[in-house]
Amino acid sequence: MKKFAFIAIVVAITAVFAVSAMANEWNLYGSARMATYWTSQDYGGDYTDSFGRDSVDELQWTLQANSRVGATVKGDQLEARFEFAVTTDGGGGDVNARRLYGVWKFTEGWGLKVGKDYTPITFFLSGQVFDNDQGLLNVGNAYGSRRAQLAVEGGLGPGMLKVALIDPTLDDLPTRGLPDTITIDTTTEGKFPKVEASYDFKLSDAMSIHGFAGWQYFKQYETVTNTVTDVTRQLDDTVTSYMFGAGADLNFGPMYVKPQVSWYKNGASAGWLNANLGLGNPINPLTGDPISQVPFVTSDGTIVDQDSLMAMLALGFKPTESLGLEVGGGYLRTKDDNDNKNNYYELYLQAVWSLANGVYLVPEVGYRDYGDLETGSGLLPDVDLGNLWYAGAKWQIDF
Q1: Which helix (H) or strand (E) holds 349?
Q2: Strand partners, 78
Q3: Where in the sequence is the domain holding 213, given as residue range(s)?
Q4: Radius of gyration of the chain, Cα coordinates, nearest whole angstrom
Q5: What would the DSSP string read from start to end of 93-114?
C-alpha cells in the first residue's frame, strides 16, 4: 500500500510540474558542500570544561548544513523560489526549508514578495567559508537571516529599494543577578512586525554603495516571586531594538574592496546578532555560561540594554579565471548599560580554485579572538574568553 501511495505522489508532482512548465520557466539547482577542517579552541586562562580541559582540538569532516536543492520559477507576472537544506548525521540526515517565496510583479521593475527569504539588510560581502560559509555574518557583516515577510522591492533612481514587514523575533529575555530567594517567570507579546529597509545605490556596473536600517518592538511580562516572603509582583517591560549601517561593493578590474559598518541597540533580541558572543560560545568563567548579547532582566524587573558596533572588510584579487584570493576580517564590540563590555574579532585568508565548471575547492585558514570580558564595576579583573583557530578547506559541486 505504501508503495502505491508513493507512486501516486510522484505522478501527481510530475503532473504539476508538467502543467506549470507550460506557462512558467523552471530551473532546478543543487549544491553539495563538504567541510574539512582542523580546529583548535583555547578557553582562555580562567576556565576548564567538565573534563578538566583548557583547550580542545577537533576534526570537522561533514556535509555542510547549507548544502541545498531548489528551483526558481519565472513567468510573465510571477516569480518564485523554493530551496531546501540537506544536512547529514552519519548515515542519516534531515531536510529543512531555507527559502520559499513568490513575487508578484505588479508594475514594471517592482514586485511584492510573500514568503521566506533573506531580509533587506543582508548584503553578502565576505567569502569566508568556515562554519557553513559563515561570511563574517553577525560578526562583521550585517545579517537579517531568512524569515517570513511581506516585502516590496524595485528600482528607484539609480538603485534598488527594499522594504519588508518581517516575522519578529520574540524570544524571552534571560534573567541575571537573581538572589536565591527570587524567581522570575517571563512571556513575550508581539505588537508589530519587524521592519527592515535598504537601498543599494549603483555607481556603475562594478561598484555600489548601500545603506540599511531596522526596527523591532515587543512587550515582555514578568511574574517576580520572593520564595521566602511568598510575595508576587506583576511587571512588564517594552523591548525596543533598532539598527542602521552602510557598506560598499567596489570592484577595480581583478581586485575588489568590500567594507561595511553597522550599529545596534539590543540587536540580538531582534535576531540581528548571535544570542551568544561569537560562534564558539566562549564561556564566562565567573558564571560558567556562554557570553550573551541579549539584554537581560534584573531582580527588580529592570532591562539592561545592549549596544553593539560591528565592522568588516574583505579584500580580493582574481589573477586568473580559475583562481581567486581573499583576505578579510570582522569586528564586534558589545557594551551594556552596566558598562560591561567585550571586543571580538576574527581574520581569515583563502584561495578559491575553480577546478571545473561548478566544481570548487576553497582552502582557508582563520583566527577568532573572543576578547576579554571587562566588568563595569572595575572590582574584578578582565576575563580572557579565549580564541579559536582553524585550517582546512571547503569542497563544493554545484549542479
Answers
A1: strand 341-356
A2: 104
A3: 63-334
A4: 24
A5: EEEEEEEEEEEEEEETTEEEEE
Helix, strand, coil percent values for the chain (each to nearest 5): 5, 60, 30
Q: What is the pLDDT of residues 102-134, one digit of tens each?
A: 999 999 999 999 999 999 999 999 999 999 999
Answering whether pTM is above 0.70, one says yes
Which of the two residues, 365 and 376, has the higher pLDDT score?
A: 365
CATH number at residue 106: 2.40.160
Q: Is residue 24 part of a domain?
A: no
Q: What mean pLDDT do residues 172-178 have?
A: 82
Residue 389 lies in a domain: no
Torsion of CA 215, 178, 387, 340, to 10 degrees: 60
Residue 309 within a domain: yes
Beta carbons of 88 and 62 less than 8 angstroms apart = yes
Residue in the block written with cell 501511495: 5
Return d(Cα 277, Cα 386) in angstroms, integer. 12
| 296: amino acid identity, one letter | F
Query: HEC states along 154-195?
Result: EEECCEEEEEEEECCCCCCCCECCCCCCEEEEEEEEECCCEE
- Is residue 269 one of the residues assigned to a domain? yes
User: What's the CA gap between 33 and 104, in Å, rounded?
Assistant: 32
Count of the separate structural domains present in the chain: 1
